[in-house]
Recover the amino acids of this structure.
């Protein structure tokens, strides 16, 4: 049982999966106005995939692990009482652990995309959904950004181009 909400903007997200007991999927008004129903269903299926894959339970666990590692490092700094060690540790935490969380996020997003692709009528609807976002939001398919190592370390979602490629690969297998 899922409740849908029409919203103006959700911190830059087009749709999201929220709630534990009462599942809610807020969807931006722009998506509802500019996309055909088949494409809207793909956005909803993706968010339902987050619910079905228990991502709303896995994320707090991943973040808790991240915070525990941070506490261990900060505790080490306090014991050594060294400013230089403090600065190096804070930088290390961000350089080492943030990419782990972002890798986890991209993996969960891919799992939600896979759920979506399995349950929608035609994977082309998902591809068209992404293409329309690129056109409407003027999100560039920046080839140079794709090849940047840092992009892969610090982004929570794969690029729309990568997600389109993933959907095309899924179609070939199907």
């Amino acid at each position: 049982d899922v409740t849908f909400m029409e919203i103006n903007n959700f911190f830059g997200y087009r749709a999201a999966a929220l709630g534990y007991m009462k599942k809610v999927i807020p969807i931006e008004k722009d998506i509802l106005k500019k996309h055909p129903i088949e494409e809207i269903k793909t956005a909803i299926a993706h968010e339902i995939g987050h619910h079905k894959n228990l991502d709303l339970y896995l994320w707090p666990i991943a973040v808790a692990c991240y915070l525990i590692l941070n506490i261990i490092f900060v505790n080490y700094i306090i014991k050594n009482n060294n400013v230089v060690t403090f600065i190096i540790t804070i930088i290390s935490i961000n350089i080492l652990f943030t990419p782990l969380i972002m890798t986890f996020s991209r993996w969960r997003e891919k799992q939600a995309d896979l759920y979506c692709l399995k349950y929608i009528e035609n994977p082309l609807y998902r591809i068209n959904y992404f293409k329309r976002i690129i056109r409407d939001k003027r999100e560039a398919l920046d080839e140079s950004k794709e090849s940047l190592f840092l992009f892969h370390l610090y982004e929570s979602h794969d690029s729309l181009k990568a997600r389109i490629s993933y959907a095309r690969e899924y179609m070939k297998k199907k």
User: Anything to note?
Assistant: Strands lie at 2-7, 23-28. The two ends are 29 Å apart (CA to CA).
